[in-house]
Specification:
The chain is an alpha/beta fold. Helices cover 37% and strands 16% of the residues. Strands 4-10-9-8-7-5-6 form a seven-stranded mixed β-sheet, sandwiched between helices. Strands 1-2-3-13 form a four-stranded mixed β-sheet. It has a four-stranded antiparallel β-sheet with strand order 11-12-15-14, with helices on one face. The longest helix has 19 residues. Its cofactor is pyridoxal 5'-phosphate.
Length: 427
């Protein structure tokens, strides 16, 4: 069967809104380290890692061995109605790593489900359905998380179980405050937050949720310190602060283990997923114990915290620590950022990010007009040269570069060269 045949079958039985990359989509059938092979036998260097999920790369023996060891017990699943030793042990590790006092952990199967849980807990705790979110944000595809997504391209419905108000700050490149200094920018965004609270809400808001670096929004982020300043305002109102660490967690940003740590603030809750499982379905929430325990109804998680995912996730945490991958993410990320900024291509409007979360915003030469066409051509050009990257941003004009955290210096140079050559080809 050809990829064209498989694509036809895909279109016949799967939703029309299920996005596929490339004019001729590919099927990945084998992978090793940071490289993947498609059904035609072509090899690609992977700079998107399954949307930041294959954080350690592919076929990592320590992780595979941990999963096989669990499979050998014959137990893939028991449910949270029974004690799961590996779940308790992983929760203990994450609670300690979070820095949140008296933290408790609840495991889910995805970032969407983790954020949905965070909203349920916050609204119950505060007895309010009002939520603050950032413009240009993305938090998932469930009914509630779509309702707090500040990016129209990913918000399919205006209907929502929560009442959301959006504030400035997460996307600086096209912000009305972009020309201000870091300090002035923070002051302006905090003033906007106060204005929204006083004019657009009844005051008793449940929470504010924010990505330290916006993922789908094009790897955009505010100056360090913004969320600390915002939390000072939130605390005055008793409003909870939730950091969405689905993409920024586990050291990927290089400078810090959690993205929010760049702002010198401890949130009331953090959500996580993606890279923790290195491809296994896992998500979760770590939060203050009194917040996690605020539910009065019974609840379980059928698949969340299952033994297989727990075994793999524990091995991922070990691998990050044993190989100092946070430092590697910082070093390789700086090499890529420096090289992209030095490219001097007129299509590049902005190069941003931290560690191995890098966004390249493409514009019409000589201005700031978004250039989604150039981003689409870059996807094809890099693919033809043997490199897989991602695409996003409010206007679909941002290249998203997020290789596995195990990326080598040689692979970073190889990928950088391909991106620079592809940019030159479409200029």
């Amino acid at each position: 069967m050809t990829d064209a045949d498989l694509l036809a079958r895909h279109k016949a039985v799967l939703p029309s809104w299920l996005a596929l990359y490339y004019d001729e989509p590919i099927e990945i059938v084998h992978a090793q380290d940071r490289r993947v092979i498609d059904s035609t036998g072509r090899t690609y260097l992977d700079f998107f890692a399954g949307i930041l999920t294959n954080s350690m790369g592919y076929d990592v023996s320590a992780i595979s061995d941990a999963v096989r060891k669990q499979l050998d017990t014959g137990i893939l699943h028991t449910s949270t109605l029974y004690l799961i030793r590996s779940q308790v042990e992983l929760a203990e590790r994450i609670a300690k790593l979070s820095g949140i006092p008296d933290a408790k952990v609840f495991f889910t199967n995805s970032g969407t489900e983790a954020n949905d849980t965070a909203l349920m807990l916050a609204t119950q705790y505060r007895r309010s359905n009002q939520v603050l979110a950032m413009r240009n944000s993305y938090h998932g595809r469930s009914f509630a998380t779509v309702g707090i997504t500040g990016n129209r391209g990913w918000s399919a419905s205006s209907l929502s179980p929560v009442k959301v108000s959006y504030v400035h700050g997460g996307y600086r490149y096209r912000s009305p405050f972009r020309a201000l200094s870091d300090t002035e920018y923070i002051d302006a965004c905090v003033a906007d937050l106060v204005d929204v609270l006083e004019t657009g809400t009844s005051g008793d808001v449940a929470c504010m949720i924010a990505e330290p670096i916006q993922g789908v929004g094009g790897f955009s982020s505010p100056p360090d310190g913004l969320f600390k300043a915002m939390k000072e305002v939130l605390d005055q109102y008793g409003i909870l602060f939730i950091s969405d660490e689905v993409q920024t967690g586990w050291g990927r940003t290089g400078e810090h283990y959690w993205g929010i740590q760049a702002h010198d603030v401890v949130p009331d809750a953090m959500t996580f997923a993606k890279g923790l499982g290195n491809g296994l379905a896992i998500g979760g929430l770590v939060a203050r114990g009194d917040l996690v325990d605020c539910l009065t109804a019974n609840s379980i998680s059928t698949f969340g915290g299952n033994p297989v995912a727990m075994a793999g996730a524990a091995a991922v945490l070990d691998h990050i620590a044993d190989h100092d991958l946070q430092a590697n993410a910082l070093a390789r990320g700086n090499e890529l950022l420096d090289g992209l900024r030095a490219a001097g291509n007129p299509l590049i409007g902005d190069v941003r990010g931290k560690g191995l979360m890098i966004g390249v915003e493409l514009v019409e030469p000589g201005g700031m007009t978004p250039n989604p066409g150039a981003a689409a051509r870059m996807m094809e050009e890099t693919k033809s040269r043997g490199l897989l990257i991602g695409k996003g941003g409010l206007h679909g004009n941002v290249l998203r570069i997020a290789p596995p955290m195990t990326l080598t210096a040689e692979e970073a140079a190889e990928g950088l060269g391909i991106i620079v050559d592809a940019l030159a080809a479409i200029s």
